[in-house]
Amino acid sequence: MRTIHVEHPIKDTIQKNSEPCVMALGFFDGVHVGHQEIIKTAKTIADQKGLQLAVMTFFPHPSSVIKKGKQITKYMTPLSVKEAMFEKLGVDLLYVVNFDMQVAQIPHEEFVDSYLCGLQCKHAVAGFDYSYGFKGRGNMAQLNTDADGRFGVTTVEKLEKEEQKVSSTVLRQLISSGRVEKVPSYLGTSYEMLGILRRIGREYRLYIDSDYFLPCPGSYEVTLKSGGLVTKAMCEVASTDRPGELSVRAFYDLPFDDHTPVRLQWKNFIADYQMDAFHAQAPMDELELSI
In degrees rounded to 5, what are phi and psi of residue 174? Predict the structure, then answer.
């Protein structure tokens, strides 16, 4: 996969070197099952048409620039993680648009002319609630009008799980309230983070990208994975933690070497610091090490 970082206005060289493609559009934080459906739909069309599969996303999140309503500055999938996930989904080209006030003020017609037609988009795919252009005045109905026959448009309809729309907002609400055990229904897997595990005395610290969106403070049952090694542990989230660091306590002696890259999966909220809640999925003595 080739990643192209785009500043506004788009350089002529980027447009000239672009390839005919089917473009999936969205911010895609979390790359949840709804996002995956958008990308899979785009891939099917790209394969049928013999075109490259492209994704266009933005960084940082528009809310952190426009500063209207709740601002998103932490991510379920930091950009580097999102890139790796896109590559696994078969994406050929990733356009990362630097979202600033200039981009925020682009009229929807100009966005289509410069960012879609200018990058040789032959078919655009996005979710039913996708919006673009100044003040989000462009929507999927408008995209058909703005395309003006220059490219096709496919809208992926709302996906629901447990009678609720699958969205990054719902996932954030679950994670921020500690209900990480409900995340797999929407994400397709447990909420996870990549990091480096370090032994500090008898404790462990996990060093992660400081852009990760953390669950609310409390104790969590987690799974640590590295290659074929898998073990259960407890992760403490505290408001006093330094950004990019998590405290991990093993139920057993961890089988990992110091400074090992690991994948941490959030499995279940155990308790907050006032013990206001306790709903572990299994007794601690039943949690086993598997290799």
Answer: -65, -45
Phi, psi for 9 (deg, rounded to 5): -75, 155
Peptide bond into 60 cis (omega under 30): yes
Amino acid (1-letter code) at residue 239: S
Q: What's the one-letter identity of residue 157?
A: E
Identity of the residue numbered 16: K
Q: What is the pLDDT of residues 76-97, one digit of tens each?
A: 999 999 999 999 999 999 999 9
pTM over 0.85: yes
CB of 255 closer than 8 Å to CB of 290: no
- Written as one letter, the residue type at 80 is S
Q: What is the pLDDT of residues 190-201, one digit of tens each?
A: 999 999 999 887
pLDDT at residue 280 is higher than 90: no
Ordered domains of the chain (ranges, CATH): 2-158 (3.40.50.620), 180-286 (2.40.30)
Query: Cα–Cα distance between 134 and 108 in angstroms, integer?
Result: 6
The full 3-state SS of the chain, as one line of letters, equals CEEEEECCCCCHHHHHCCCCEEEEECCCCCCCHHHHHHHHHHHHHHHHHCCEEEEEEEECCCHHHHCCCCCCCCECCCHHHHHHHHHHCCCCEEEEEECCHHHHCCCHHHHHHHHHHHHCEEEEEEECCCCECHHHCECHHHHHHHHCCCCEEEEECCCEECCEECCHHHHHHHHHCCCHHHCHHHHCCCEEEEEEEEEECCEEEEEECCCECCCCCEEEEEEEEECCEEEEEEEEECCCCCCCEEEEEECCCCCCCCCEEEEEEEEEEEECCCCCCCCCCCCHHHCCCEC
- Separation between Cα atoms, residue 191 and residue 264, nearest integer Å: 8
